[in-house]
Structures are given as C-alpha cells and as structure tokens.
C-alpha cells in the first residue's frame, strides 16, 4: 500500500473513533439528563451541576467516578447496562472532572 493510502486509512479510522466517542458522550448526556438531573437539581439547585463542581465533592478519581455512577444505578434501580454506565462516566469526566 502506498503511503498516501495508508495515511487515508489512518485518518478514516481516527474519524470513526472520534464519531464513536462523540456518540458515547451524547448517549451518556441523555442518560444523565433523563435519570439524574431532577434529583441533583432538587438537592443542589439550578441545573444540578453543582454536585460535580462543589469543593467538597466525593468523587476524586476516575475509579471513584465509576463507583459513584454504579452506586447511583443500583440505588435508583435504573437497570443500566455496563456500557451505559460507562457512557455516563465518559460524559461526566469529559464535561466536569477531566481525570
């Protein structure tokens, strides 16, 4: 394969990966908005994002974020699959935590 062909393949794969990542973020956002925000907003006011940005937040690592999302999934009996939990973790990390 010529170098230009190989470069085209690399960019195509990178584009697919970026699209899949964007889709996962959007899916995580949708799950969060439809299942979590009403409780967070009633507890922290506004749009509920204060739970993620407060100085004394519980989540301090990516593994802690995953554990918290799993805990909420269980406590609220949301019945999310592992990939859905991961989408929420990805969205929260990308949007608020940046671990």
Hey, roughly how much beta strand do the residues contain?
under 5%
The whole-number mean of residue pLDDT values reads 85
**Rg over C-alpha atoms, rounded to the nearest angstrom:** 17 Å
Number of domains: 1
Note the overall shape: globular
Question: In total, how many beta strands?
Answer: 0
Helicity, as a percent range: over 70%
Gap between N and C termini? 39 Å
Helix count?
A: 5
**Structure classification:** mainly alpha
Which parts are unreliable, with pLDDT below 50 for 5 consecutive residues or more? 9-14
State the order of secondary-structure elements, H for helix, E for strand: HHHHH
Tell me about the biggest sheet? none
GO molecular function: electron transfer activity; heme binding; metal ion binding
InterPro entries: Cyt_c-like_dom, Cyt_c-like_dom_sf
Signal peptide: 1-20
Domain Cytochrome c: 23-96
